[in-house]
Amino acid sequence: MERTTIHFVGPRRIELRGEPVVAPGADQVLVQTQLSAVSAGTEMLLFRGEIPEAADSEADTISRGLSYPTTYGYCAVGQVVQAGSSIERGWLGREVFAFQPHSSHFAVTPSALVQVPDGMTAEAAVFLPSAETAVNLVQDAAPILGERVLVLGQGVVGLLSAALLHEFPLECLVTADRYAGRRQASERLGVTAALDPADPDFKEKALSHTGSGFTGYDAVVELTGNPSALDDAIALTTFSGRVVVGSWFGSKKASLDLGGRYHRSRIRIVASQVSTIAPELGGRWDKRRRFAVAWEAIKRIGPRRWITHRFPIERAADAYRLLDESPEASIQIVLEYR
């Protein structure tokens, strides 16, 4: 039996490589992948060659040590098809999620797997990393009753974040994205408004939803992947408000205008990243608890509707080309394994 794995070999270059499937070790299981999701954020930074050399982090094992050639991916759903000699037989046949690179088969210890809830499809389960990220972002934003919140960027994580925020009793929830398809998906969530940040009157329109005489949003969640959006985020945040930065810009630099109202604004800029739990929550929250919340969010929100394209693994190059050259045409791309 042979497995197929995607290898990133240079900027905008991937290769499909086949190699024999190695039997799992005594303390491992072998998973046959059904679906994996392509990340439009970190994964596209790697594809385009925009990962900074200093990307290593002890906390972030997914993005640590990225350099060509490498394998990558962190949204794999499959079935346990073989178990090592020291593994309980009950693992055989289980549907599981793993933060694993795109490959048709992989061997790991059970501790590296997250069991998919009964009755949940693979199409839903591939959204676990995005849903967990959205949960983390909302926890860092810490919305309270009656606040005004703006979400910049309506990719998958932005849509999930907006869906979670919509469950709060906010005064208004406004989103923004430059792609019409994503704005339409956001509108279907029931947000107050979904705006185009390229509109010359964007800031005025955004502020118009915060009420007469109000000078901005209590919280702005930035998820665009575009460093210039940080200036918009700061400009649209009210006195003592907070900007939660969820984007990883990679090697792209952010040049901020901090010489105007920001100096006296007491605005807090918060770095939000899902690899760790916020220190103030660490005594009560762990990854297992956050996964449980993310699974329930997936059940309520139904993000599988945002899968716009499916490609067999053999056409992975087409999937990356589409996301790189025509990002407006897709929301979530998945790879299928037969």
Identify the CATH architecture of the largest domain: Alpha-Beta Complex
Secondary-structure element order, as H and E? EEEHEEEEHHEHEHEHEHEEHEHE
CATH topology of the largest domain: Quinone Oxidoreductase, Chain A, domain 1
CATH domain class name of the largest domain: Alpha Beta
Major sheet size, sense and barrel closure: 7 strands, mixed
Stretches with pLDDT under 50, minimum 5 residues:
none
End-to-end Cα distance: 13 Å
Radius of gyration: 21 Å
Strand content: 25-35%
Number of strands: 15
* Tally of alpha and pi helices: 9
What structural category characterises the helix and strand content? alpha/beta
For this structure, what is the CATH homologous superfamily of the largest domain? Medium-chain alcohol dehydrogenases, catalytic domain
How many separate structural domains?
Answer: 2
Described by the principal axes of the CA atoms, the overall outline is: globular
**Residue share in helix:** 10-25%
| Rounded mean pLDDT score | 93
Description:
It is a single chain. This protein is an alpha/beta fold. The protein has two domains: 2-126 and 302-336, Medium-chain alcohol dehydrogenases, catalytic domain (Quinone Oxidoreductase, Chain A, domain 1, Alpha-Beta Complex); 130-280, 3-Layer(aba) Sandwich (Rossmann fold). Helices cover 25% and strands 26% of the residues. The chain contains nine helices and 15 strands. It has helices at 42-48, 122-125, 128-141, 156-166, 180-187, 202-208, 229-235, 287-301, 316-325, and strands at 2-10, 13-20, 29-38, 76-83, 95-98, 105-108, 113-115, 148-152, 172-176, 193-195, 217-222, 237-245, 268-271, 307-312, 332-336. The strands form three sheets. Strands 3, 4, 5, 6, 7, 14 and 15 form a seven-stranded mixed beta sheet that branches. α5 (180-187) links the parallel β9 (172-176) and β10 (193-195). α3 packs across α4 and α3 packs across α8 (287-301). The longest helix has 15 residues, at 287-301. The chain is globular and about 65 Å long. The two termini are 13 Å apart.
